[in-house]
Specification:
187 residues, mainly beta, SH3 type barrels, OB fold (Dihydrolipoamide Acetyltransferase, E2P), 3 domains, five-stranded antiparallel sheet, flat
């Protein structure tokens, strides 16, 4: 057990039996009152944000978290099969750990996976951008680069996103995995 004052932003801790990641930590001393720590924590399982106050002498269980890069191979039911880039060991990763970015990743991308005590994966992070090929979109016209008008495009993994008018079928584009937004066209 460690003291609350040992925590910093990004640390993982166990709070009420759940694994939490510290998102914001403030030490406050309001006038004549005693000092306290105001901590915002995010539950890594369900994504809920929790805010609580702690006294400086309170203790917390800080978790040892190891992060490793894994290569995403394929989907198997409710799991993703990933391979360690160094030892070639395969693990099964729950789809829910990736959240909304799961729709925009494809086989072969590198995921950053965090493990609690080297056993169970607690978080997974997709790369910030991924390059996808446009399977179908309405043809664009020459000179359609002046406006910010968007059209629908179906990507190689079946997801539909909005792209500028100048993007055509067969083009490769960079997509933001956090929200599915078009970033740029790739040569």
């Amino acid at each position: 057990m460690a003291s609350i004052s040992d925590l910093s932003k990004g640390n993982y801790m166990r709070y009420n039996g759940e694994v939490m990641q510290v998102e914001e930590l403030q030490h406050r001393t309001p006038g004549n009152l005693r000092a306290f720590y105001q901590i915002k924590m995010r539950n890594v399982r369900n994504g809920r944000l929790v805010e609580n106050r702690f006294r400086p002498g309170d203790s917390a269980e800080i978790l040892r978290v190891e992060t490793k890069e894994y290569n995403y191979l394929y989907q198997d039911g409710d799991s993703l099969v990933c391979m360690d880039n160094e030892t070639f060991e395969q693990i099964y990763l729950d789809k829910n750990l990736l959240g909304d970015s799961l729709a925009y990743i494809k086989e072969g991308v590198t995921l950053l996976i965090a493990f609690e005590d080297g056993k169970d994966p607690i978080t997974a992070q997709a790369p910030p951008h991924v390059v996808l090929e446009v399977q179908y979109t309405e043809p664009g016209l020459a000179g359609d680069t002046a406006t910010r008008t968007l059209k629908a495009a179906k990507m190689e993994n079946g997801v539909e996103i909005k792209v500028p008018l100048f993007v055509n079928t067969g083009d490769k584009i960079k997509v933001d995995t956090s929200n599915g937004a078009y970033v740029e066209r790739v040569k």
